Amino acid sequence: MTALLVRGGKPLTGRIEPSANKNAVLPVLCATLLTDAPVTLRNVPEITDVIRIVAFFGELGSTIAWDKEAKVLEIDHSTIPAGAKGTLPQAMRASIMMIPGLLHRLGEARLEHEVKGCTLGAREIDPHVAVFRAFGAEVSQTGGQIIFRAGAAGQPARMWLEYASVTTTENFILSALTVSGSSQIVNAACEPHVQEMCTFLEQCGARIDGKGTSMVTVERTAELTGADYTFIEDFHEVATFLALAAVTGGDIAVRNAHPEHFMLIDRTFAKFGAEVRHEDGWSRLQAPERLRVEGNFTSHLITKVEAAPWPYVPADLLPIFIALGARAEGQMMFWNKVYEGGLTWHTELSLFGAHTLLCDPHRLITFGGAPLAPATVTSPYIIRVAIALLMVASSIEGESTILDADPIRRAHPGFVDNFVNLGADVQWVK
């Protein structure tokens, strides 16, 4: 077990250059399996899931050169021998996005039933099975494995998703690029990281119309080429460091070349009395004198933050706003419309002395403004919950411990180093 020891109560100040978005890097890595041409990826973070995928590529026989200090990863899958086999990494949800590339390249892929990821609740595999079958794959089960085999002749497909799932949308796009012709997905996810995967694929020669909208058309007109692609800043990490400024009474600027993704996120910060400014490629938050929940004109309703698929507030960012709610004066309702297991960690906040009420699996109310005290808390296996607990601990004078804080390493390389550079007193301990 790895924990974070936090001596809080200091305003955090400074400038940060965030890493790339894990949720963009992983599908792009999976997408590289669709081409035999060399691919160069820049600004690649050295995080757990990237390490696992790179190791898997090595098992297959790919040629890999990774300059971790320069954050440059070079991949050449043309060296994968015929009949190669590899065990898909089971400790991450992204494994399922390697199936289109493996079917295209090897004709078969095997996956354990229980694909791991953050403990957010039920995350079904059925929509992915429907996608693979729509493109002609055969899917069967044996023992604890699901076996996917490429059909005799793949065909284009048109699907209307019941739910705008990110990974299902990405698997549809990747699968569409393994067959000739035009395919279309309706009710597609349109998060920035989905758009980023599409941008990479366009550089490889794919034709994708409608990225960033709910209707996307994909066409493979020729063999995909290689690309030299640089990942953009992770909007989750940008928002997280801005929230750290707000919760600690600090002043933090974060490099951000895409402020167009932040209009609703900025409005959400404003509900706590915090203002975000974007200027010259940087986003900055100077904490107000005190955090206070903005009142409603409809006075009998509680101010709320609703999290749902983009363009709503991302569910992945809800924990950092819950941390603000625990500190801000007033009541705030948080509504997670995506995961039924995304709010159960609120009991850890009570160990700091925070007052919360779980209305049901999807709605939580914070009653903020009361004094909080240092505590030892335990993070579930959810990346930004570990960060949210770290945020609260950093805002409290005294020594706190965040147990099981390892999920942070899944998405944010050097996060604690950045934290320390902002003036925090934080360290990893066994």
From TrEMBL:
Location of the protein in the cell: Cytoplasm
Q: Cellular component per GO? A: cytoplasm
User: What does it catalyze?
Assistant: phosphoenolpyruvate + UDP-N-acetyl-alpha-D-glucosamine = UDP-N-acetyl-3-O-(1-carboxyvinyl)-alpha-D-glucosamine + phosphate
Q: Which GO terms describe its molecular function?
A: UDP-N-acetylglucosamine 1-carboxyvinyltransferase activity
Q: Where is the signal peptide?
A: none
The record's listing under Pfam families reads: EPSP_synthase
Its GO biological process annotations read: cell division; cell wall organization; peptidoglycan biosynthetic process; regulation of cell shape
**Entry's InterPro entries?**
Enolpyruvate_Tfrase_dom (IPR001986), Enolpyruvate_Tfrase_sf (IPR036968), MurA_subfamily (IPR050068), RNA3'P_cycl/enolpyr_Trfase_a/b (IPR013792)
Alphabetical UniProt keywords: Cell cycle, Cell division, Cell shape, Cell wall biogenesis/degradation, Cytoplasm, Peptidoglycan synthesis, Transferase
Q: List the pathway annotation.
A: Cell wall biogenesis; peptidoglycan biosynthesis
**What's its EC?**
2.5.1.7
The similarity annotation says: Belongs to the EPSP synthase family. MurA subfamily.
Q: What PANTHER family is this protein classified in?
A: UDP-N-ACETYLGLUCOSAMINE 1-CARBOXYVINYLTRANSFERASE
What is the recorded name of this protein? UDP-N-acetylglucosamine 1-carboxyvinyltransferase
